[in-house]
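so my prof wants the structure for this chain in the tokens format not the other one, which i didnt know existed until like an hour ago. anyway here's the sequence
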Amino acid sequence: MSLYDRILVPTDGSAEGERAVSHALALASVHGATVHALYVVDTAKYAGMPMETTWEGVGNLLRDDATEAVEAVERLAEGTGVAVDTAVVEGSPSREIVRYAEEHGCDLVVMGTHGRGGIDRLLLGSVAEKVVRAAAVPVMTVRIDGDVAAGTAAESGNPAEATTPDDGEPEAAGRS
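here's what i got, hopefully its the right format
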């Protein structure tokens, strides 16, 4: 029996977000799981737009972006042997991600986080944090900040070049 059968990866279509998608696809490959690529059109963000902006035009643009984002996940999965199901929904991102995971029997959620900290995190919260708190299944967050990802020991091949995610200062490799 495999640990994961259905892995949900919410996507925003960004190049940075592809890192979380890659993690989800790698896990799915190992476990023989299906990846569910989900894009949530955050309709609340656009509720306060000026009246001269038509919702139909904006809605069409948002849905086009959404379709493009989930199709990008399908393209990334080509040649991996991983099956990908895609969906586009509208609503609050954190609520819709949790709802989708529950309704589709997902075993794991893999999602990116921008690593917002300090007062920004306290005031604004984050979609990933809300999903972690509300989901009934495990949530793997993948930090997608370019600076942190580029400086990790695993990617550079040199543990002496590792940086901490908090302050960006080099860690003392091999010392305690």
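also thought this was worth mentioning. Residues 147-176 have pLDDT under 50 and may be disordered.
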